[in-house]
Amino acid sequence: MQLHSAVALICATVSLFVIAGAEDPYRFFNWNVTYGDIFPLGVHQTGILINGQFPGPDIHSVTNDNLIINVFNSLNEPFLLSWNGVQNRRNSYEDGVYGTTCPIPPGKNFTYILQVKDQIGSFYYFPSLGFHKAAGGFGGIRILSRPRIPVPFPDPAGDYTVLIGDWYKANHTDLRAQLDSGRKLPFPDGILINGRGPGGASFNVEQGKTYRLRISNVGLQNSLNFRIQNHKLKLVEVEGTHTLQTTYSSIDLHLGQSMSVLFTADQPAQDYYIVVSSRFTNPVLTSTATLRYSNSAGPVSGPPPGGPTIQVDWSLNQARSIRTNLTASGPRPNPQGSYHYGLINTTRTIRLANSAGQVNGKQRYAVNSVSFVPADTPLKLADFFKIDGVYRIGSISDNPTGGGIYLDTSVMNSDYRSFIEIVFQNDEDIVQSWHLDGYSFFVVGMDGGQWTAASRNGYNLRDAVSRCTTQVYPKSWTAIYVALDNVGMWNLRSEYWARQYLGQQFYLRVFTTSTSLRDEYPIPKNALLCGRASGRRTRPL
Length: 541
Hints:
Residues 33-146, 159-296, 377-513 form the Plastocyanin-like domain. Pfam families: Cu-oxidase, Cu-oxidase_2, Cu-oxidase_3. It comes from Gossypium hirsutum. With 541 residues, the chain is mainly β. It has three domains: 26-144, Cupredoxins -  blue copper proteins (Immunoglobulin-like); 158-321, Immunoglobulin-like (Sandwich); 341-533, Cupredoxins -  blue copper proteins (Immunoglobulin-like), CATH 2.60.40. Helices cover 9% and strands 38% of the residues. Strands 9, 10, 12, 14, 15, 16 and 18 form a seven-stranded mixed β-sheet that branches. The protein has a six-stranded mixed β-sheet with strand order 22-21-27-32-29-30, with no helix packed on it. Strands 24-26-34-33-28-31 form a six-stranded mixed β-sheet. The longest helix is centred in the first third of the chain and has 15 residues, at 2-16. The model is unreliable at 5-21 (pLDDT under 50).
């Protein structure tokens, strides 16, 4: 009864304040988040289920749809969901990370009001607090083009979500306790494909037909390689951008990344291995699923096909080959190449270096020497209610300091509508992966060694892929251009989840003095209030 009452209340709220035009459809979701028994690697674990499902249900939507997602928290600890790649235009209050959104208390609910404004593509959602991601609670998001917007390939015969990620046999509470005590996590125990261990998942196809796979690396620590025995993969979309349709025998997905591939079931009718293996690791983790032809004459045969293991150059060259299809329509009829990012002068360069070290005898991770610690109040609420002392603007510098790691609630200020360059410098031996909420950015360059101003001579200023998550190889750099056209408080984080949990993140505050709804929506009427914002009022219903 409590759940239905909450839904009725939010429906009334939505009808009173519609954040999009009446022509944009609404899709309603009721989700109950619970603990449940799971056995993905053959041992009992406590997983996080959504409506009893592990992984959670897919979200199917169309460009500009309004998504009304009522989340009831039946766990015994606070909970939030975030939407990896959904930009939440003008509305960072709904982003679902602790810097923007108060956690949903145990036994309570919160209704997210999202709009997938001017977006297409393949993304995913995940739980953002308390290392919950190591227990599940994630699922796929697909945003289809509107019916009259051309897509640069024929409709596939089937469209599958494929969630891949490394996994621990330990419960998330045990992993979290290790991190809280200042220790590093061990190497993961295996790889899951759609929540199942080796040989557990299967995909059915008919001979001669073409299928789309929307693949996301929802794991915790490792880059992964994806391949299908005897089948080629044609890349067609990366995190909302139609790409040049390059064919690969296998493809790397780094932490937090999503992409779509097409493949044709053009081999003799039998079962084939789908293989996912870890990259740049020793030992190499491997897991398999089954591609099953409807007229299959027999089971999989032979060993699973091998893939690249520790070769960085192979992965770097593949990453550079992923480019934007300049003639394809995006979420609007104009071609993706109509935005000439390479002709715009950048107004600021931000250089970000990741590091690892000890603070007070405990393991921490940092960006430009600052290891993020959450404040007692979401930063976005502190901004709205003008609560002093929650964070300091400029608490993280634009450039690496070279100093020791220290703790702070790091927030970097930036100007609305500026066009900036961000350089990620990775001087460590791991593959780093960075994600920026609220945005897509152009990945204009990546190479080994130290970035210098001369590195700009090698930038791709014509058809760089636009995405929201990018890798940085060991002892290497990656450069991006981003147009700061989305007001809000946006999380920039490592997708290496233990690093994110222990401080390798900060918030980019994209600010304007304007109070116009054209620039930013007001705080949601149903916003949860916590910390120093408790007891205040959002807006009258």
